[in-house]
Specification:
CATH topology of the largest domain in chain B: GMP Synthetase, Chain A, domain 3
Largest interface: A-B, 27 and 22 residues
Distance between the termini of chain A: 32 Å
Bound molecules: zinc ion
Oligomer: heterodimer
Radius of gyration of chain B: 18 Å
Strand order of the largest sheet of chain B: 4-7-6-5
Largest sheet of chain A: none
Shape of chain A: globular
Shape of chain B: elongated
CATH superfamily of chain A: Ferritin, core subunit, four-helix bundle
CATH topology of chain A: Ferritin
Number of domains of chain A: 1
Structural class of chain B: alpha/beta
Radius of gyration of chain A: 18 Å
Largest sheet of chain B: 4 strands, mixed
Distance between the termini of chain B: 37 Å
Number of helices of chain A: 10
Helix content of chain A: 55-70%
CATH class of the largest domain in chain B: Alpha Beta
Number of strands of chain B: 7
Order of helices and strands of chain B: HHEEHEHEEEE
Amino acid sequence: MTEHVRYVLALADDVLVASQRLGGWIARAPELEEDVALANIGLDLLGQARSLLTHAGALEGEGRDEDALAYFRDERDFLNVHLVERSHGDFAATMARLLLLSTYLHELWTALLTSTDDTLAAVAAKAVKEVDYHADHARMWVLRLGDGTEESHRRMQAGLEAEWPYAEELFDGSYVDAALLETGVAVDPSTLRERWAGRVVAVVEEATLTVPTSRPAVTGGRRGIHTEEMGYLLAEMQHLARSHPGASW
Amino acid sequence: MTVSTYARARAVAGTVPDPEIPVLTIEDLGILRDVAVDDRGRVHVQITPTYSGCPAMDAIRADVVEALEREGYAAVTVELVLSPAWTTDWMSEEGKRKLEEYGIAPPSPLPAGGPVPLSLSLRCPQCGSPDTRELSRFGSTACKSLWVCNVCREPFDHFKSI
Ligand SMILES: [Zn+2]
């Protein structure tokens, strides 16, 4: 597998796994409108993932389509960050995660608008508008909970503390091949960190919350090393396709 | 091939309704991007999604093939293209009028180059009052948000500007 394929897969897996997690909130969110909101956000991310997986399969040239890549790869072949695979926890933790992730995705897609990989640039042009809306949705919840009651403030702070250590993996560019950066296919995610931090910290402070000072978590998603929770997530996502290969409905 | 062959194929493809907002055709929505007919009569159609995850695209793809085959075109292929990214500015004026008639507040024009503005006010598609408010930024589909009119109290969908 070329470094180009691996890069596109890593981008795809972040949004695919995030989408699968968000889908788990349907019928469990605090209000009906939020069920709909999280489902729609998940659907946008799934759409981005489908385009990216299809592209990765085409680049690879071995006949794997989006379904083959989503349903028939094993855990060690998934290259997503740990942030997106973490189980729900409190609703406030999900909102903290959505804020961290969608703010990052907004910076990522903005940078990839000028990728020399035309398909990546095209996906970015659609996705950038979508994730901006997602980030704004997360921001409104973080403000509402952080600057709400004593209890909502406490839980929003706890959610932020829980997710914060996992944000750092998003900006670790060591998995991106130098040649892809030179040819302008990829972006070095570490260059996105400053603008990301500016936007996230502004929301945290506006919400009267405290920016966590915790150390980054030990991760390894870009090398296919995942948490225990990932196995359960994949089992749920893949079992139908694996039990009934070729099924359609 | 003549121009009229192309025009006819385009017209046929353009009549396919959106599965989620059936008063609009894919031509009204601006998601029918191109129709090409080669000299052997094969038709190649390009469509573009409104949102990356729009679940209606598979249905639209099948409906386009069916509509053209019903009109006698034998080899129809439909391609999904992403670039340039669709914007609500591609919706026709006719489409916006039909949307409002259907009870969905149409998207506002996007400002040149700038970010999407805060919607100051939307006109209620039921009674026409500008006294409305947003209930939820996500509606029944990715492309819509949910609003309510403070005067007639009717809830309504708004096709978001992107
Ligand atoms: Zn009204």
